[in-house]
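Changelog note: in this version the structure field was regenerated for every chain. One regenerated record is shown below for reference.
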Amino acid sequence: MKSKALFLAMQALTIFVCGAAHAQSAPPEGAQQFAELGDLKLQGGGVIHDFRIGYRTLGNLNAERSNAILWPTWLGARSEDLLPFAGAGNVVDTGKYFVILVDSIGNGASSSPSSSKTQPLMKFPEFSIHDMVESEHRLATEVLHLSHLHAVIGMSMGGMQAFAWAVLYPDFMDLVIPMAGSPQSTSYDKLLWTTEIDAIELDPAWNHGNPIRPFNRGLALAAQIESMNATSPDYRVSHTNSKGFDAFVGGIKKNAKGGPGVACNQIRQRQAIISFNLPAELGVSLEQLVLRVKSRMLIFIPTQDHLVNPEPARRFAVAVGAPIITLDSPCGHLSFACISVGPIAAQFLADPSSVRTQTLHEEVLNQ
């Protein structure tokens, strides 16, 4: 009898200790986490060795494991930049959903030219938007042990990944919400990103692909080009007068500094965008591409987007029969900072059938 009591006491103690250890090891909500996935084989035939993907999770997975939402980062962003979009009353309510914010390849958190020990800088292989999605799928299935997602959401380059998810893994999620994304890069997009890469490589520190010291000029030039295209001419004129122009440009230059690793990260992610073309990759037309889609989609399109040409996204939406939320704002690609989209996104996540095509207007131009 005493032996049995002792056994039960030890068992209870073991459960308590293990539970306490688990609680101590569990990262705080929204904390940066990493998963080691071994070699990541790339669509183009290369391999990223010792691949590591960064991510953050918020909220709780429900008993049915049916409330997970995956949200990858945009160009140059890190998962921490997505945190303001998650929470009660925002785009995704972490009280209702288990939200996975993912660092896209090449952003400096996930495996990147700046962080790879075996494939540093430009030895880091070129990767694609497709490869980003593959790494995210491996995170979801191999690390988080999910067989299905409620939704995939993404802005800009994240929106490109959302389109790719809808086509490459059509059965894996219920809903897809691309925001200012595209299923393919147009010639206009390619011209922009190629010009930015050329600007980076004009820096004397580029040293013919063997960067030797911190960058200043090249990154600043690329940032100026991107700033010019991120909003509309009307927005820039209304926000920056002649007296404030020097300070405006000075601020861009100040924030654009970085070392060789940053420059290589920026080049590789831009190359991924330049090569992005889902119809060509699958050997179909854009209209035929939508036949692969099984999830319901909600597509946000800024009317004055000069950073990601909106026409392919519009054609895709019409072909698939998805509601289009047009953002009428001189903020252009940055319209999400000028028009609140959280309520409509939340409505679609809860009840997709209740959302219809509509135009949202900016009520007050930010000053």
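Spot check on this record: The chain has two domains: 33-183+277-361, 189-272. The chain has a mean pLDDT of 92.
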